[in-house]
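Let's practice the habit of predicting before peeking. Look at the sequence and jot down your guess about where helices and strands might fall. Then scroll down.
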Amino acid sequence: MDKWKQIELFALTVELGSLTRSAETLGISNATASRLLTSLENRLDARLIERNTRGLSLTEVGKDFYLKCQGIIGDMKEAESAANESTHEPSGTLRITSSSSFCLKFINPALPLFYEKYPNIEIELVSANRYFDLIESGIDVAIRTREHEANNNIKVRRLAQTRRVLVASPSYLKRHGTPTSIEALVNHQFLLYTYIDKPNELCFTRNGIQSTIKVKSILKANDGIILKSAALDGLGILIQASALIHDDIETGLLTPILQEWNLPRFSINIAYRAQKHLPAKVRVFIDFMVEQFNLKDINNQWTK
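Done guessing? Here is the structure:
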């Protein structure tokens, strides 16, 4: 039992970067956690983690051992999940990462229904506009726009596809005029998202014709919520996924611009670890999100 606990503690300490946090997660004291880690190192006759005032760092031996431990722990969790699934309700903490915009727009509103169906699952949302390594970060599920992962141990399933559209508030258009051609966009001020390649460069297509222009930004940000707020305040033209601003367009808070031209579309995907037996908490969440998107007929709304 101690051998398994030692391995579990070691791997968790690496992932959380803290012996104290791993002890809290496992429900043991700091003294017990320290004893388990020391016992593991003594048993292996090797130093795995260097501890100093600046924090923890893996030794070379520790890095190799951690990679092997990941496979062992993954297999054990899969075995436990497969054994428990037939007799227990899905349970445990489900760690999800997504952008702030997607969390607020799609995950939070769906949680009451999800908790009604699966009351024993606790959700931990990691809001971020960057891509975490799912395995190293201990993330169960990620909502992403990229359709493929470099890591073959990660699977990707599409939830929906959406247009990227140009919009502005009525107040902005009243002050600056509504552009009637893509060439006219160079005279306007834009709100640009920094986490894409060449944010100032827009590539439009219409009826097989392609045209690329460079636009000026009045504000750049790495968070879509900030940019949308600025657009609603009349600061500039926003380039945003239709999925995230559909309601604002419907209510007239934002006005579409040059709808006959298309920017490259992107898909909204759900990424998770490739496993023979998905943990029940992961499987039911994926199925739930797919069902929610299908029920809303979202693709028809977002690709027009």
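How did you do? The longest strand covers residues 154-162.
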